[in-house]
Description:
The chain has 9 helices and 21 strands. The protein is 23% helix and 27% strand. It starts with a helix and ends with a strand. It folds into 2 domains: 2-336, Rossmann fold (3-Layer(aba) Sandwich); 344-407, no CATH class. The model is unreliable at 2-33, 341-372 and 396-411 (pLDDT under 50). The chain has a 10-stranded mixed β-sheet, with helices on both faces. Strands 15, 16, 17, 18, 19, 20 and 21 form a 7-stranded mixed β-sheet that branches. A hairpin with a 2-residue loop joins strand 1 (38-44) and strand 2. By secondary structure, it is of the alpha/beta class.
Amino acid sequence: MVRTITSILLWLILTSTIATPGITANHVAFGNAPSNPRTVNITYDGKERQYMIYLPSNYDHTRGADGIIVCFHGFGGKMANALARFQHIANSDNVNMICIAPQALPEEDENLLSTASSIGYDLSAVWGQALHVEVKLLGLSTPVGATFNQDVDDVAFVRHLIQHTVETYHANPDNVFVGGISMGGYMAYAYAIRHGDELAGVINYTGTMNFKADTVNVLEYIKVPVLDFHSKMDATVFYEGEGYYACSDNIWMKNGMPKLTALDWWARKNGATRTPIITDMGIHASDVSVKKYYYDHIDYEITHFQMEGDNANHSYQIKGGAVNHGTEVREFILRHKNPNKPMISYEWLLAPAIAVNDNMVNVVGSDSDRFSEITIDGVAGADLSENHDGKEVTLEASDGTQEIRLMIRKK
């Protein structure tokens, strides 16, 4: 990836910058293939997109699923590879979660894509707005930079997939985890910065945060637990250093926020302990040493496994390395999974599933369209126009035969 990005950005010196058109939202149609997992083709924002969905073996439509794991592949990667990372975890005891693995688009700037292809590099799948890279050349005082697919709002696309999955498969919206590999880790953090209040956790393999991410104007209530795996020896996604890393005698590159800086930002945001508890976990396979960093918080922990050793390169970590990723991820999910029955977010069902009229809700698409009385935290007739963020809402039909439970979220 380093060589790929370096070559591309060298070419950018001689080319114009990329324009930023507006983004519009369109309705999408979802496929209904019987296989599991299955690939779904949709249209979103005028673009043909794909994702894979996996239902756990004990999935029952009446009961629903306990949550969702969103799986992001790496730079130039495939959705099937990301799904394979998490599928067995989602299907394990007490997890019972649906996996959705979206596919990133090719780089949309035709000149950039053409030049990359001509020199043998693959930009067939890069997450929109998740990764910014800068290169400095000997003799030039100003670095050259680019954000891949800077006109593609993949955060909005993924949020749409989550909402659709919640509504269609009755997945618990309080148990949504995002996980990514390499560039997919950047994407997981990018999603959390914008919608972390809608997540139960972030899982990152060898990625980091975009150093150009707006970490100043993040909404106050964005807080989310984090599980992070990364090696100090990673020469693809650099672990540390505020500046530029030497790629050759006259080329330096910067491609991410230093890992401990990113984790400290999340600790500060989450209200967690700023000084981590560091546990030496010893020497493991291939002479790789592991340290566990734990930033304590009862609800919003940050746990980071730091690897070090000559063999702890980028691909070594992705393949598993010295840490049992599956066990750690499963335990992390179980620590932060809401055990309550699946609830449906009021915000997500506002249209067209329900219509609000003062203190009554007309449930559209039920056996018969009936008005239901609202009870919020046990108080009947509460005004839905008020801010009831995080409170439990019960809708009970006048004939007593229908009950729907919702969880109100901030919009």
